[in-house]
Every structure is written in C-alpha cells, then in structure tokens.
Amino acid sequence: MLKSILLIASLTAGQAMAETVFDDFSGDANARWDYVADGVMGGVSSGRAEIRGTGAGAVLRLTGAVSTDNNGGFIQVRRRFSDPWPSGAQGLDLRVRGNGETYYVFLKTPNLNRVWYSYRASFTAPANWTQVTLPFAEFTASHDAMPQSFAASEVTSLAIVAYGGDFDADVSVDRISLY
C-alpha cells in the first residue's frame, strides 16, 4: 500500500482526530501528483513540478512563471484520490518554504459542476521551512454558483497553486497532514 495515507484515525464521539499524514512525498510520489498550467485554457504561464529526494527527505517543488496574459494566471501541482478523508478532519497542516509569494491550496469535491470551481485558502511561503495551518472553515468557494461549504470526507483533489498575478513561483512542500 502506498505511504500516501499512513493512518486513517478512527473517530469516536468526544475524541479529537489524531494527525493523519496525507502525503510526505515518499514512495512513488511522481505517480500521485500531476503538473497543470493555464495553457489548458489558452494561458501562457509555464513551469514544472518535481519531487526532489527520496524517503523521509522527499520534497515537492513547484516553480515557474505565472502570467495573466491571454486570460491566464496559474500553474499547479495536483493530486486526485479516491480514499475519503476522515469526516472529523478540521483542516490541513503543510510544511512549506518558498520565495515569499502567496500560494494557494485548492480543494475539489465531486459536486462541483465546473472544472474551474474549487475551495481555496492562501498561504505565504517564506524562505525558511515553516508550518502553515489551513482550517477547512477558512477555505472559500471560488464562485457564488457552487456550494459555499464542503465536508472533509467529500474532498477528491488537492492542488498547490501559484495563482492570480504575474510573478515567478517557487514553493516547496515536504509534508501535508490532516488534523
């Protein structure tokens, strides 16, 4: 079994959920994550995503040039999955570093009827490794026409995204956990 989900904590009434590692980029992480840029919609942003290192020291890195030219404005690395997250999960913890720019986590659920719909939360990636906590309650719907909230157990896709402006992207993530 892939190490992508190391533990699904069992939840009982009155107990807090134990931390669940969603991905530590070990094993065959390249097969789990896909790079996507706005070129799929005519944009001109370019970049790449790569897994550096192996085992416990593996890191996902997204780099490139984000451009709003030609109605563009994003590069992302995305993971789709079918195993549900625990229904009691309250948010995500990410360990990140980068170039000081603002980045996003986009989450998708099956009830989103447009490919560009997602639930979004932003974070800043400083030069030194830091832990970022993103409560699900702080994720916002990208459009008014979609449901304005979601359940953790409904999430089927997570993306790390450089989005919304003209800038050079450089963000690394070495661990994503649910809490």
Distance between the termini: 22 Å
β-strand amount: 35-45%
> Which series of helices and strands comes N to C?
EHEEEEEEEEEEE
Specify the helix fraction band.
under 10%
Average per-residue pLDDT, rounded, comes to: 90
Rg, Cα atoms, Å: 16 Å
- What is the 3D shape? globular
How does the helix and strand content classify structurally?
mainly beta
Number of E strands: 12
- Would you identify the regions where 5 or more consecutive residues have pLDDT less than 50? 1-15
For the biggest sheet, the summary is: 6 strands, antiparallel
Tally the helices: what do you get?
1
What does this structure look like?
This protein is mainly β and 179 residues long. The chain is built from 1 helix and 12 strands, in the order βαβββββββββββ. The N terminus is likely disordered.
In short:
With 179 residues, this protein is mainly β. It has one helix at 29-32; strands spanning 20-23, 34-37, 46-52, 59-66, 74-80, 91-98, 102-108, 119-124, 130-135, 140-141, 157-163, 167-178.
